[in-house]
Amino acid sequence: MRLKADLTLFAISIIWGSAFVAQRVAGQVGSVYIFNGVRYLLAALVVFPFAYRSFRASGPAQNISSSQYKWMIIAGFFLFIGSALQQAGVKYTTAGNAGFITSLYVVFIPILLFLFYGEKPHWVFVLAVLIAGVGAFLLSTGGSFEVRFGDLLEVIGAFFWAFHVIILGKYAHQFESMTFSVGQLAVCGLLNLLLGFVFEPMPLFDGRLLFAIGYTALLSLGLCYTLQIWAQKHTPPADAALILGLEAVFAVISGWLILGERLAALQALGAVMIFSAVILSQFKEWTSGKIDPDHLVEGR
């Protein structure tokens, strides 16, 4: 069962990594908020039957509390900001860069936990932050002193992804996970769609955009999130952290194979440093055997 779960997580990391290519295609079409709005709402519809079954299985007396509604809205808001910045950034940078820089959220989590919750980080986190910072600079600039606008948006977005994961880890575990997922996906989708209707021209829903919506909504968000919940129940958290961390690697591979994107030597070094920092940031949890599985839940 563990091997099957690990292979499932491996497939999820491939789909999540390749989803950055689909997002890049949508960005080239010119859609940010409407694309996000449609795909997140479609994902909510995909997950809804599973949530409804889980809700019914919890017993006829169960109701969604006002506290769950509050945290679904808050989580959905941070998911909205993170997804909007990510999609806006991928218009101006490569799929590979977007994948690696987004993965920095794992490194940012202990920083935010220290700043907002007073949780003192382990020394390995400080080292991971330094390595990740140098890596992000090399990946974005190739060694020059000009940071690309799209990469900057991805870095800011990674902070919001980190906030979102912290909310999941500290509050979402109090509630039934599938209904919470549907709620935050719906909030994220509606906020993106509202912003798109106000500030964005209606995109042409051609074959490229429809494929990007379908791929990210049905596979990356809907299917992978559901499979991830099952897989992480049957494999150690350290396995899940390492395998899902390959998402950024598959983003680069997908961008190379599908879009012909290339990394210069210094950019490749930066990507390796970011990946190493992400793995290093989990070192203390691996050695203690107490990785928080909520820190690993992050769909694209």
Describe this structure in words.
The protein is an all-alpha fold. It has one domain. It has helices at residues 2-29, 33-57, 66-90, 95-102, 105-117, 123-141, 149-170, 177-199, 207-231, 237-244, 247-259, 265-280, 283-288. α4 (95-102) packs parallel to α7, α5 crosses α6 (123-141) and α6 runs antiparallel to α12. The protein is globular, with a radius of gyration of 18 Å. The model is unreliable at 289-297 (pLDDT under 50).
DSSP strand content = under 5%
Overall 3D shape: globular
| Total E-strand runs | 0
Overall domain count: 1
Please summarize what this structure is.
The chain is 77% helix and 0% strand. It has 300 residues and is mainly α.
Task: Give a quick set of tags describing it.
300 residues, 13 helices, mainly alpha
List the helices and strands and how they pair.
Elements: H1 2-29, H2 33-57, H3 66-90, H4 95-102, H5 105-117, H6 123-141, H7 149-170, H8 177-199, H9 207-231, H10 237-244, H11 247-259, H12 265-280, H13 283-288
Helix pairs in contact: 1-4, 1-9, 1-10, 1-11, 2-8, 2-9, 3-7, 3-8, 4-7, 4-11, 5-6, 5-7, 6-12
